[in-house]
Amino acid sequence: MNPPVECLDIAEWRPPLPDGVSVRYTAALEDGNVLYCPKLRFALSEPELRFLDPAVLGDNAKSLAFDPATGTLKHARGDQQKIAGMMQRYADAARTLVCSVLPRYASALQTGRTSFRPAGIEGRSTSLAKDDTLLHVDAFPTSPVADRRILRVFSNANRSGKPRHWRLGEPFADVAKRFYPQVRRPLPGSARVLKSLRLTRGYRTEYDHAMLAIHDVMKRATEYQRSVPQTEFFFPPDSTWIVFTDMVSHAALAGQHLFEQTFYLPVSAMVDQEKAPLRILERRAGRPLAAT
Ligand SMILES: O=C(O)CCC(=O)C(=O)O
Ligand SMILES: [Fe+2]
Fold first, then answer.
1. Closest CA to 11 of 43, 45, 41
2. CB of residue 164 inside a 6 A radius of ligand 1
3. C-alpha 121 to ligand 2 mean position (Å)
4. Whole-model pTM above 0.90?
5. What atom in ligand 1 is closest to the CA of residue 138?
6. For 116-130, what is each residue's pLDDT tens digit?
7. What does residue 153 show for φ and ψ, rounded to 5 degrees?
8. Fold entry, domain 24-285
């Protein structure tokens, strides 16, 4: 099995791309491939190198979290302004990249959170549901996506040669076929209760409910985790990759110093909506799943 990875030979965040290339990259991404840029580096300035120390991470958190919309920085210890500046630069770089490589998405692309993970993955103990060393597709418990895709940009900023070690699993259509039948419908009225108690930011649609359930049952399926076809991929330091993490089965096994930017893309902005997990699940359900 070859890893579902398409290699982009670019070294700039706004690369000059020949006509037609972005069409091919967009199709590869929508098909469930990782767009991997081995030579695209997120460079830190000399004074920023001190933020690679895991001691910048506070509150027992996994990541520093930044909201480019408001400038709010969470879980950071140290010079808040300088750290926020570094995060903002990553958010801008990632957005520039997506808009240049995938120009078709530019006008509809919504910017979400920026994160930085200065600590190693290895040896982190968490609950099963939060354990990203197990194969999963992303679903956010408190931030429903409704009819939007989750598109993420990752950069390995490690300075001591440590790659980000991932596993990539089976295509989403196979995940859906295997796990969607196990998903129970949400209790009537539960989405409204979650929203009114502010347990979710917005209304948890049936699609959000299904994706969360798939995320959880997938992680709990021990035999599946062992036996499903999967390939290893090592993202070296100074590389960057773009993924629809709501569709690509992934697990992160090792690595340290990762930057990540989350974007949301309305399904309607895709070249081929039928490839969206939302549409794949709706075909199985035989009804719309993103109604609010
Ligand atoms: O930390 C990583 O490399 C990725 C973890 C993950 O699964 C995610 O952020 O969705
Ligand atoms: Fe994930």
1. 41
2. yes
3. 13
4. yes
5. 10
6. 999 999 767 678 888
7. -115, 130
8. Jelly Rolls (2.60.120)
